[in-house]
Amino acid sequence: MKKFLFLSILLLLSCLIMPFALASDDDYRVDRFTDKVGLLSSRQEAELIELFNGISLRQQFDVVAAVVYSLDGKNPRLYAADYFEQQGFGTLDNTGGIILLIAMEERDFAFVTTGHGLSVFTDTVQEYLENLFLPYLRVDDYFAAFTAFAEGSEYFLEEYSSGGSLPADNLPIPPGMDAPPFYPTNPDSSLTAEERRNLHIGAAVVSLVLAFAIPGIVVAVWTRQLKSVRPKDTACDYIRRGSMSLNVQRDIFLYRNVRRTAKSQNSSSGGGSSGGFKSSSGGSFSGRSGKF
Amino acid sequence: MALKEYKCPNCSGPISFNPGTQELTCPYCNSIINIEALNYMDEQTEQTPEEQAAIWDYDGNSWHEGEEHGLVVYTCNSCSGEIVGDETLGAATCPFCGSPVVMTAKFAGSLRPDLVIPFKLDKDYALSSLDKHYAKKRLLPDVFKENNHLEDVKGVYVPFWLYDADTDSHMEYRGTKVRTWSDRNYIYTETSHFQIIRGGALGFDAVPADGSEKVDDALMESIEPYNMGDWAGFNTAYLAGFYANKYDKDAKECSPRANERIKNTTTAEFRKTVVGYNSVRQVSSNVRINCGGVRYALFPVWLLGSTWEDKSFIFAMNGQTGKFVGDLPLDKAKRRRLYWTMFGIIAASLLAISQAYIAFIM
Ligand SMILES: [Zn+2]
Ligand SMILES: [Zn+2]
C-alpha cells in the first residue's frame, strides 16, 4: 500500500515537473508574446507572456502572438506562418500551434494555425475566434484583443480534446471582461445585436428620405406639366441636311499619370484571406487575415 | 541645338529636354508628357480664326400694283397693337388683349411678305386642343377648368424672319481616358489627357425669329417647328378671315437671337463628334456665322386668351402642325395636400416593410 502511494506521488510530481522541463528547453526562442512596436506597457506585456506561456504548456500547443510594424509587402498570412516557423514554435511534441500577428503600418491582422490546430480550428471556429478579438483591435484595445485570442484559443482546444462540439449560441467571454462590442445573438443569424440595431435605424432613415423624395419628384413632374412655354435655344430643326463637314479632326495625346490606391480588404470575406496554404518552408497552415 | 524650355501641361512646372525626346516624366508631378504635343500646341496658339456673328439685312419687295387695296389696318385702343385684315373682318377684337379694335386706315407701306404657310387647322381644332391641354394636369385648379373664361380665339398670321446661314467653326476640348487595373494590394488608375480639335462647316436654312413685338418670342419658339415643305408664295387671298400682324422688329433687330441659336446648335453638333473619352471639357468655341439669305414670312398661329384671378393666360397653337402650348395656373393648396398624402402612404409602408423584414427575416 505504501509502495502504491509512493508511485502515485512520483507520477503526480513528474506530471507537474514535465511542463517546466519542456519550458526550460525552449529558452532560445523569442517569447510567445512579442510587441516590437510598443503598443503595450511592460506590465501588460509581462502579463500576456505569462498568459500565452501558461496556455501553451497546459495545452501542449504553442499559442503565440506578435505585434510588428510592417509586413514588408508580404501576404499577411504567409508572414505570420513564416514568423511562427522561423521562431521555432510548434515543436512542443510537434503538435503545432496558432499565432495572431498584427502589423501596425497598414493595420493588417492575420492568424494562422498548423499541426493539431488544423483539426481544432476549422473554418467555423476561425470565424468565431476572429469575432472574439477583432472588435477589440478595432477600438485599439490591444491587451483585451490578445487576451481574448489566447483564452478563446484555449477554450476551443479544450472543447476539442473533451470531444465537445462548439456552443450553438454563446461563445466564451474571456474571464474578467465585458462582452465584445458586438456579439452573435442568434445562431442562425450572422448579425450581431449592434449590426441589427444599426440596420433598423438605417432602414428607417432610408425610408423617410425616400418618403420625402419620391412625392417631391412626383409633384415636381406635375408642376412642370403646367409649363409648356420655353424659349428654344437651339436651331437643330434648321440644320441644312448634309451640310456638316469636318475639316479638322485632331486628337493629340498630351500626358498621362497613374494614381495608386491601396485595396481595402474585407476581414470576414473568404476570397483569398482565409483557408489553407503552405508556408515558405512548405508547412501546412490555415488561417484568416484582414484589416482592422 | 539648345535645350527647349516648356511648361508641364499638368502642373506648369518648368521642364527641359533634349531635341528628339519623345516622352518624358515631369520631375514635379510624375506625369508622362508627350513632347510632340507640346511642340504642336506651341504652333497652334496663333492660328485660331476670329469669331463672328451675322447681321442680316433685308431689302424686301414692295407690294404689287393695287394688291394691298383690300387690306385695312386696325388699331387696338387698349394695347395699341396693329392688326392687318381684309375689309371683310368687320367688328373685331384685339388678338393680344381682347379689347375691341377700330379700323384706322387703309393699309399702306410696309413690305410684302415673301411667303406664307397657310392655316391648315381650324378654330374647332384649336378649341378641342385646349381641352386636351387641360387634361391630365393634376395640379391645375379645378375651378380654372370648369369656369374657363375663354375670351377669344383668333387665327393670326405672325410675321417671321427666316435666316439662312453658313458657319465656320473651330472648337477645342480637353478630354481624358481612364484605364484601371490592379494587383494584389493596389488599384491603379491611369488618366491620359488629350487635346481635341475640331473644325468645319455647318449650314442652316430658314432659322425663324418672330418679328412682332406684340407676340411673345418664347411662346412662338415653343410652337416651332413649322414644316417648310408647305410654304406658298404670298397672296392676299390667304388673309381672308384671319388677322395678320405687321413686323415691327426688322431683320437686323432679330438677328442676335438667330445667331445665338445657330451658335448653340453648332457647338452641340461639333461636340457630338468628340467620342471615346471618359470626360470632355470644352476649352474654346469659335463659331463664325456668315449671312445667307433672309426671307419675310407669315406663319399661322391660333391665339387663345383667357383670364383667371386677374391674370391673363395666353395659349398658342401652331396653325400648321397643331402643337399647342400655354402656361397654366398652379393650385398650390392641392399640391401641398397631394405631397403630404403621398408622404404618409410611402413613409408608413416603407417603414413597416423594412422594419418587419429586418426583425423577422434577416
Ligand atoms: Zn508636372
Ligand atoms: Zn390689344
What is the element layout, followed by pairings?
The complex is a heterodimer of chains A (292) and B (362).
Chain A: H1 2-24, E1 33-35, H2 42-59, E2 62-68, H3 76-86, E3 96-103, E4 108-115, H4 117-120, H5 123-138, H6 142-161, H7 193-225, E5 245-262, E6 274-278, E7 284-291
Parallel strand pairs in A: 1-2, 2-3
Antiparallel strand pairs in A: 3-4, 4-7, 6-7
Helix pairs in contact in A: 2-6, 5-6
Chain B: E1 4-7, E2 14-17, E3 23-25, E4 32-34, H1 35-44, E5 71-76, E6 82-86, E7 92-93, E8 100-106, E9 115-116, H2 123-134, H3 142-146, E10 150-182, E11 186-210, H4 217-222, E12 232-233, E13 243-245, H5 251-271, E14 279-308, E15 311-318, E16 324-325, H6 332-361
Parallel strand pairs in B: 9-14, 10-13
Antiparallel strand pairs in B: 1-2, 3-4, 5-6, 5-8, 6-13, 7-8, 9-12, 10-11, 10-14, 14-15, 15-16
One zinc ion (ZN) is lined by residues 8, 10-11, 13, 26, 28-29, 31 of chain B.
Keywords:
heterodimer, A: 292 residues, alpha/beta, 6-stranded mixed beta sheet, 7 helices, 43% helix, B: alpha+beta, two-stranded antiparallel sheet, 23% helix, binds zinc ion
Radius of gyration of chain B: 30 Å
The proportion of residues in beta strands of chain B is 35-45%
Q: Segments of chain B where pLDDT lies below 50 for 5+ residues? A: none
Oligomer type: heterodimer
Question: Mind summarizing the main beta sheet of chain A?
Answer: 6 strands, mixed
What is the structure about, briefly put?
Chain A is an alpha/beta fold and 292 residues long. Helices cover 43% and strands 20% of the residues of chain A.
